[in-house]
Amino acid sequence: xxxxxxxxxxxxxxxxxxxxxxxxxxxxxxxxxxxxxxxxxxxxxxxxxxxxxxxxxxxxxxxxxxxxxxxxxxxxxxxxxxxxxxxxxxxxxxxxxxxxxxxxxxxxxxxxxxxxxxxxxxxxxxxxxxxxxxxxxxxxxxxxxxxxxxxxxxxxxxxxxxxxxxxxxxxxxxxxxxxxxxxxxxxxxxxxxxxxxxxxxxxxxxxxxxxxxxxxxxxxxxxxxxxxxxxxxxxxxxxxxxxxxxxxxxxxxxxxxxxxxxxxxxxxxxxxxxxxxxxxxxxxxxxxxxxxxxxxxxxxxxxxxxxxxxxxxxxxxxxxxxxxxxxxxxxxxxxxxxxxxxxxxxxxxxxxxxxxxxxxxxxxxxxxxxxxxxxxxxxxxxxxxxxxxxxxxxxxxxxxxxxxxxxxxxxxxxxxxxxxxxxxxxxxxxxxxxxxxxxxxxxxxxxxxxxxxxxxxxxxxxxxxxxxxxxxxxxxxxxxxxxxxxxxxxxxxxxxxxxxxxxxxxxxxxxxxxxxxxxxxxxxxxxxxxxxxxxxxxxxxxxxxxxxxxxxxxxxxxxxxxxxxxxxxxxxxxxxxxxxxxxxxxxxxxxxxxxxxxxxxxxxxxxxxxxxxxxxxxxxxxxxxxxxxxxxxxxxxxxxxxxxxxxxxxxxxxxxxxxxxxxxxxxxxxxxxxxxxxxxxxxxxxxxxxxxxxxxxxxxxxxxxxxxxxxxx
Length: 713
Fold this sequence. Notes:
Largest sheet: 22 strands, antiparallel, barrel
CATH topology: Maltoporin, Chain A
Oligomer: single chain
CATH architecture: Beta Barrel
CATH superfamily: TonB-dependent receptor, beta-barrel domain
């Protein structure tokens, strides 16, 4: 991987400003509301639908408030990609997968309003980010670097928690208020409508939120249609809260209906996804510093996908329809109390998910494959964590034990009567050790050493674990099921898989002076028993896969991997009205058992944004210009036939006008110079008879505009 000269040049410019150093918060929300930190939630207007991005597990660092009216991607993945070390791997317009420091998919923990969502699609068509629906005060918290054990279970590659804190909603003034907005985007004749209503009365509140999105196919920078980039979604959320003295209750229910939406990097497209989740929350405040929280939650997804309704089909007997569903329930409890000049956190987490999948052919009623039958994954976990702070040092030390039980019912297929290889695979799976229990111990320790008022030294170490997913163990027939990896190969599961164990070390500095801050981090991660595909030696699997696709499959196996890299943030004021923010992310991943790169690793990326607060004809105005420079990625996986991708540079513009205290107009242009490019983290096209050749990277859109207007009442 070679950093381009222009990226280095701009990085040098950005870093040179750090001599002025310090922490700066960018405020782009409608009412210029104050930043909400991880630990304290300032009251915000109920009509301010914001996603606030936060960057430190130990204390607040820089943050950026982003209104939903500025999203170009339906699932808001573009808003999270501004964070250090984070990028988006996308297989379709509503299938964003977070990649953090070279790891993505199920290795990155994502919680939505305290709910750990189990998706129905084994290829992550209904990824956790697809369940995000903006509501008042929504906060996306990224734990940069070493993730505290209290942040989540199996946080091997990081954790992102997306929620609207109840404390902030309880603090809103009594009365009725809300917000409605409408957005138009090109290309694809995109429309987006959002609204929320909020009512508070003494110690109670009620909120309702809705959203509608639709878009036809988008165009790349060369003017050609991006295959199957269409989507249509509708959703809503209701939330109610009440507090009595030391007791606080709140409950949420959300539904989201995704209709026909494309996934060009996968073998099928979304026919529909009907998803719903709920959460019941309780908090007991014993005193100012001691409290107990409990959350009961669950989700249910019904999902159908096919390979014929939105893309050409060669022959009728090749039609496939996959009917899937998932249900999950969970319980999280946490007790916090002062202890030895610090704070002690104790917690228990319970979670159980179940997946089913049946593949059929609507042109042949006799054809069926029981893909997954009542495959379950149950987790029981407990942790203890101590947060200590003194004049010279802050530290966070935690220990977590997790037990994961996996099981699945027997499978069957109409193919067993006519294909000996399929019959052998089904028999071996049904007679195999489908039930297995994993015992895992996580340890995490982070230290901020305060050298002086300007310099903090950051050190962190951790050992984190992850048990296999249901598709990594229970895919009994070689199919293109990869949890979103989307490398084009067939995979077969492995009932003998061990859990992954990642050991990570991080070192960094926070340097602050005047109105500037620079915060570099170096990290090293060694992953034992890394689960990846290796060439299959199963004769029956090889025979079936070769007959169906022309190539032998991979089998999920325990290997080893090493990931190294760095990320740097620079923030500060160029003047009283002009601010600058720079994020540089670099990661390098290798298989350690063989001489090969990890698949689909994001190249180095430099993002620089300049904001200018001004006035146009007495109208308060915010103008932004963003430079996005991405390096060439030539460190690719030869085992998975991964191609190199060239680097590229983009320029984005946006402006916000406060036309009235209740009316805001937003306009933006992404990819100003209509650059044709395809991110390395994009999937490869699998849609025939499209403007993009089969096997080529699915390009990102060319120049696109967006105009949004919102009214607050």
